[in-house]
Each structure stands twice: as structure tokens, then as C-alpha cells.
Design goal:
It is a single chain. With 325 residues, the protein is of the alpha/beta class. It has one domain: Type I PLP-dependent aspartate aminotransferase-like (Major domain) (Aspartate Aminotransferase, domain 2, 3-Layer(aba) Sandwich), CATH 3.40.640.10. The protein is built from 11 helices and 11 strands. It has a 7-stranded mixed beta sheet with strand order 1-9-8-7-4-2-3, sandwiched between helices. A hairpin with a 6-residue loop joins strand 5 and strand 6. Helix 3 crosses helix 9 and helix 7 runs parallel beside helix 8. 51% of the residues are buried. Bound molecules: pyridoxal-5'-phosphate. Pyridoxal-5'-phosphate binds next to helix 3.
Length: 325
């Protein structure tokens, strides 16, 4: 079913540059994502892979701090034994030593703290709660060492390939969120592996009772076969960028390719509960840096309802005003 839908979409429109144009399918997919996202999420940036979503997270975090007049915040803290992708920024925050080794001199300097890995690292007499708090204390100490005014933080909600799908102990993410808030640090969650329904809820963090400032998703978003990823952005960050420069300088010529804009009938769509938040306030112009443009493309909702696929790409974008955010 996906193939005819893709071909039909290609016949209607093939390409539009992501720095200037958006499409109805992209807007509708973004609106669906926002309607079901953690509280506070207001916007989406699409890309073509998990690694690209991570790169976008890193740059957006840094961009936010420049916009709000805290340009010294350029460092990141992440966890050992994590995997965040293979591009240079993603490798930098990642903690997979063998993947990093040949490129170590080229990587951004990132502070690494312990993963939440109770199976091996919780003390024999330590409760889950005490272990989670100990790790939050370690993050706090690392922040103080680097200077909290210099940092944005980073974590996988459920540690993926490098730890064998290890979930955090109860209370860990609440404690991490609290440490980040205390120091004015952004919390970035990598849900490329664990999100989009793979842990029983749409987002793994739904089970932790916290919301990130930025979140990377991919993999399940494309139903397993389409090269599509996304960065979910909180309203706080969006508003800061809007009030500031008004744009996120991160467009990719290849990022709006037809083959990168397939929202297959994904497993996450099948499992979606009723939207927990009012779509009315969140659904318009939901992508970032992409104004609405002419679109004759099939809509996401139609594809969703029919259980088919849609390509999220551009129409001929005649006469569209192109603003920043
Ligand atoms: C947690 C996590 N983040 C990022 C990535 C990178 O995604 P991609 O391989 O699509 O670039 C992966 C890939 O396995 C991942 O598991």
C-alpha cells in the first residue's frame, strides 16, 4: 500500500527546499506529533535520520542559549555507554568508546556521567530510589565542575543497543529533571530507539512523568522503512527563538526529499490514545522554519484513517510567504 501512495505523491510534487517551504502533509504529521507529545511541546523539525535529529537537538539547545543571551552555554553532559548516532555531534555526546576512538580528536568535548544501569551499578545495599538520587547527585557534581552556566544536558530515556534496553530506575528522570531545572540546563531526551510506541507508551518519558525541553525521535516514526526523524521542541524554546532571531539556521537541501517524507501507517499511529492536549492551540504551522505552502498532497489524517502511507514532501510552493520560525 505504501508504494502506490508514494508514487502518487511523487506525481503531485517532488521537492521543495526545507528552508523556505512546508507542505500540508508535513504540517499534519507535525500536528499529530504535537497533539500526542509530552506537555509543553509545540513544534517539530523534520530530518532524515536519528543522528540528524540528535544533531538538530544539539544545535537547537545551543541556539536557544544564544537567543536568550546565555552564549556561554555551549557544553553538553551525556552518559557513558550511550549511543546517539554516528555523525560527529552525535558521536560526541555518545559514550560508545569503540565508535568514538578513531575520531576522538575531532569530537566536541562532552562531559560524561554514569548511565542508569541498575543491573551492574546499583550498590548491593542500595534501593532503586537511592541509586537514582546518587546518579542525580553525580549529574549535579558534573554540572558544578563544568560550570552550570556552560551546559545543556542529554540522555536516552531507555538506554538502547549499548546497554541492552535498560530502563531507568523509578524516580531517576524526575531527579534528573529537577537537577537540570535547578541549574537552568535544558534536558534533551533521545527517544530514537525507545520512542514511538516501542516501550508501550508513545514516548518512553510518558512513563517517567517528566517532559523534556527537546526530544529526538526517528525509527518507529517512519514505520521502520522510511528515512524520517524529527526534533520535538518545547514552547519555551520556540518562543525564545521566535522573539530572537526568528529562525533556526539548520535547513538541509536534502532534508525535504520525497523519499525522506514518508509517514507510513506506523505502529505508533495504531496505538495512539486520544490527544491529551488541545490540538487547537498547537496544530497550526507546527513545523519550524517552514511556512505553509500550496499542497495537493494526501493528508496525514487520511492516510492514518485508511491505514495507508503518505509522503511528507513539498508541492509547488507558489506565492507563499516565507518567514523564519
Ligand atoms: C538511541 C539512538 N539514538 C540515535 C540513533 C541514530 O539513529 P540513525 O541510525 O537513524 O542515525 C540510534 C540508532 O540506533 C539510537 O539507537
Amino acid at each position: 500500500m505504501a508504494t502506490p501512495m508514494c508514487c502518487a505523491q511523487l506525481d503531485k510534487l517532488t521537492y521543495a527546499h526545507s528552508s523556505f517551504f512546508t507542505t500540508r502533509p508535513a504540517e499534519e504529521l507535525a500536528a499529530q506529533l504535537i497533539a500526542h507529545a509530552p506537555p509543553g511541546t509545540s513544534n517539530v523539525v523534520f530530518c532524515s535520520s536519528g543522528s540528524e535529529a540528535i544533531e538538530a537537538c544539539l544545535k537547537m539547545a545551543r541556539h536557544y542559549f544564544v537567543e536568550v543571551g546565555e552564549p556561554r552555554r555551549s557544553k553538553f553532559i551525556a552518559r557513558r555507554q550511550s549511543y546517539h548516532g554516528i555523525t560527529l555531534g552525535a558521536l560526541s555526546v555518545g559514550g560508545r568508546a569503540t565508535a568514538r576512538a578513531p575520531f576522538i580528536d575531532m569530537l566536541v568535548d562532552v562531559g560524561h556521567v554514569s548511565p542508569c544501569y541498575a543491573y551492574r551499578e546499583r550498590g548491593a545495599d542500595e534501593t532503586d530510589e537511592a541509586y537514582g538520587l546518587r546518579l542525580a547527585g553525580e549529574l549535579d557534581a558534573k554540572l558544578r565542575q563544568l560550570g552550570p552556566q556552560n551546559v545543556a544536558a542529554f540522555a536516552e530515556t531507555v538506554a538502547g543497543a549499548t546497554l541492552g534496553a535498560a530502563p531507568a530506575v523509578p524516580g531517576y528522570f524526575k531527579a534528573i529533571r529537577e537537577v537540570c531545572d535547578r541549574h537552568g540546563v535544558l534536558l534533551i531526551l533521545d527517544e530514537v530507539m525507545s520512542g514511538m510506541g516501542r516501550t508501550g507508551t508513545l514516548h518512553a518519558c510518558d512513563q517517567e512523568g517528566i517532559a523534556p525541553d527537546l526530544m529526538a525521535i526517528a525509527k518507529g516514526l517512519g514505520g521502520g522503512f522510511a528515512p524520517i526523524g524529527a526534533l520535538l521542541v518545547s514552547q519555551r524554546i520556540f518562543e525564545a527563538v521566535k522573539r530572537g532571531s526568528g529562525s533556526f539556521p539548520h535547513s538541509l537541501v536534502s532534508s525535504n526529499r520525497t523519499d525522506a517524507r514518508i509517514g507510513a501507517k506506523p505502529t505508533w499511529a495504531i496505538r495512539l490514545p486520544a490527544p491529551p492536549h488541545s490540538p487547537a492551540s498547537r496544530s497550526s504551522n507546527a513545523t519550524i522554519s517552514l511556512p505553509m505552502c500550496a499542497s495537493r498532497a494526501p493528508t496525514w489524517s487520511a492516510a492514518y484513517a485508511k491505514g495507508s502511507a503518505t509522503i511528507i514532501t513539498s508541492a509547488t510552493c507558489a506565492g507563499t510567504g516565507c518567514s523564519g520560525v
